User: Fold this.
Amino acid sequence: MAVTADLLIRARRAVTGDADQAERPLAVGVIDGRVVAVEPLADSGLSGRDTLELGEDVVLLPGLVDSHVHVCEPGHTEWEGFASATRAAAAGGVTTLVDMPLDSVPATVTADALAAKRRAADGQCHVDVGFWGGVIPGNTPELEPLARAGVAGFKCFLADSGAPDFPPVDAAQLTAALRALAPLGRPLLVHAESARAAAATGAYAGRGYAGYLASNPRGVENLAVAEVIEAARATGGHAHIVHLSSSDALPMIASAQREGVRLTAETCPHYLTLTAEEIGDGETACKCSPPVREAANRELLWAGLRDRVLAMVVSDHSPCTVPMKAPEVGDFGAAWGGISSLQLGLPLTWTQARRRGIGLAQVAAWMSAAPARLAGLTAKGRIAAGYDADFCVLAPEESLVVDPGQLHHRHPATTPYAGRGLYGVVRLTLLRGQAVDPGRPRGKLLRRTQ
Ligand SMILES: [Zn+2]
Assistant:
C-alpha cells in the first residue's frame, strides 16, 4: 500500500481475534482511527507518520469487548460510575463495554431511560460504551423503540434480580419477549436462575460458604437453562445465557446448539478462577449469583469453552460499596451478590488459560471477537481492515500481584483478588489509534444499527 498511515504498529507478536489464526508477526496500518491494512511483518511495505515498535515481550491484541458490565449511573453512582468504570476498563485492556440495564435509576427499560443513561455517560467515558435494554413484565411496547434507539439487545431475569424496578419474567413472558425480538434482530440475554427452584431451596443467612452454595444448587440454573432453550426453540429468537456457573447445563446447551436452536452462552473470570473449596467462611467478596462452585465444576467450564459450547468470557462487573459486602459480619445472606473485576478480566482469564496450555489467540476470540459479535459491534473485537483501531498491548509473561490501590473501579476494596499473583500486564490501551489518556475521555456512546 502506497499511502502513509497515521500510525504504523510493528508487532513481533500479534493475535487478531480469530481463534484459528496463531500468534504471528504483523504490521498494522491505522488511518483516522481505523485499521486500513494488516500485513505479515516481514513482507510489509507499510509506512506511518508515527510508528509503534513492539518487542518480543509483548503481544498485540484487539481491544477487549466486555459485554457484561453494570455501571450503575445515574441513580447508584456511589456504587460505580461511567468515569471510574471506563478508567478501570482502559487499564485492563478493555476498549468497549456494554452496560447492563439494571442497577441504575432509571433501569433501561424505556427509550426515555436509555436517553437518561446516555446523558449521564456523555463526555466522561474513557472507552466506547454500548447499552443493553431491559425486558420486564409489561414493557413489550418499549422493545421496538429501544431497538430503534440503538440498544445492542436486551436482558431479562428469570428470578429475583435484587432490583425492585427490574422484576423477573416468567416462562410465558420470556417466550413472548423472544418472539417480539426475533424480527428486530436483537438477542435476549437471560439471567438463568429459576425463581421456582430458588424459592424451594430458600434463602441462606450465615457465614458459611458451604451453606450459601447449598442454598444455590446447580438445579436452580439447570431448570432455568432448560426453559430458555425451549423458549428459543419455539420462537426462533436468539437467547444468550449470561454468566453460566453450573457445568451440568453444558450438555443441554450443546445439544440445543447442535439442533440449530439460536443459543449462545458466556461465563466469567470468577467461575474460571475461584473455587468453592478455597472460599473461606465470611469471605463475602466472593459472593455472586449464581455462585462460584467446586474445582471440578470449574474444569468442566474450561472444557465448555474449549468445545465452543461457551462462546465468550466477560466480567459481569457488578459493583457495590464496601459496606454492601458486609465485610465485618461476613454474612452471605446480607452481602451484595456481585464481583467487580472489569480491570482484571484479562490477567485472570489468561493466568488460568496459560496454565491449561491455551494461547492468547483463543483468549482474544473469547474476550474480544465473540462479545463484539453478540452486541452487533461490527467494527469491534478484531484486528482487520475496516475495524476500529482499538488495541491492547499485553506483556503475557510479566507477573503482577493484585494491589487494590492500582484498581480504578469505584470501590477497589471490594475485590476478592487482593494479593493474588497473576500473569499478564497491560502495557498500553489504544482507542481508535490513540493511547487512552486519563485526562481526556474520548469514548463514544455506541448505537447498534443492524
Ligand atoms: Zn450481571
Notes: The pocket of zinc ion is lined by residues 68, 70, 100, 316, 318 (CB under 6 Å). The mean pLDDT is 97.
